[in-house]
Design goal:
This protein is α+β, with helices and mostly antiparallel strands. It has five helices and seven strands.
Length: about 200
């Protein structure tokens, strides 16, 4: 598996044990520092290779980051630091994502997870503790952003089409290449075409 290509379809095959993961504390009982064993199958930490794959993908999708109102029809927010934990959980539940939906959380280039939305709701305070985080799923139709000052933003119904932009960029690059080729051809031709003003 060392040389196997990472894809969204096989990403869970690159799992590593949660019990030895550096971020396991985010999913532990506060009093006893023990993992919630019953939820381990819903919290899948990924190895460095898969984490880097997700990190690079995330940075290629500008609409996943904060200040993304131009890319989604709706955005809602909650000042989590001013609410009780139960109020935040209720707000997350009301986003309408099914509990068993697999979501992506990339904490760093070396640390990423596949979790269920239920785990985001249950462990939100540990996941978003004093940090900027992004949660999304493979549909790319919604995104949950946390700001380190304790605000959660949920954007949904994406209107931005990355594929359209990619096609436009490719078309633009092709036009530039064609123009450069024409300039080059004219430059080469001018070497061999007599200048009428010198005759």
């Amino acid at each position: 598996m060392k040389y196997k290509k990472v894809t969204f379809e096989n990403i869970e095959e690159f799992a590593v044990p949660l019990s030895t993961h550096v971020l396991k504390w985010k999913f532990e009982l506060e009093d006893e520092r023990e993992l919630y064993k019953e939820f381990e199958d819903q919290i899948i930490p990924l190895n460095d290779k898969a984490s880097a794959f997700l990190w690079d993908f995330e940075f290629s999708q500008k609409f996943l980051f904060l200040d993304n109102s131009d890319y989604f029809k709706e955005t809602d927010c909650i000042f989590a630091d001013a609410k009780t934990s139960e109020e935040v959980k209720k707000w997350l539940y009301q986003r309408g994502i099914k509990f068993d939906t697999k979501v992506i959380w990339t904490s760093s280039k070396n640390h990423a997870f596949v979790l269920t939305w239920k785990m985001i709701i249950k462990f939100w305070d540990g996941i978003f503790f004093a940090s900027d985080e992004i949660i999304w799923d493979k549909t790319l139709n919604w995104v949950l952003n946390s700001h380190h000052e304790g605000v959660l933003y949920f954007s949904k119904d994406r209107i931005y089409d990355a594929n359209t932009e990619s096609r436009e960029i490719a078309k633009h690059n092709e036009s530039i290449k064609e123009f450069q080729d024409k300039i080059l051809q004219k430059g080469l031709m001018s070497k061999y075409t007599p200048n009428p003003f010198l005759s």
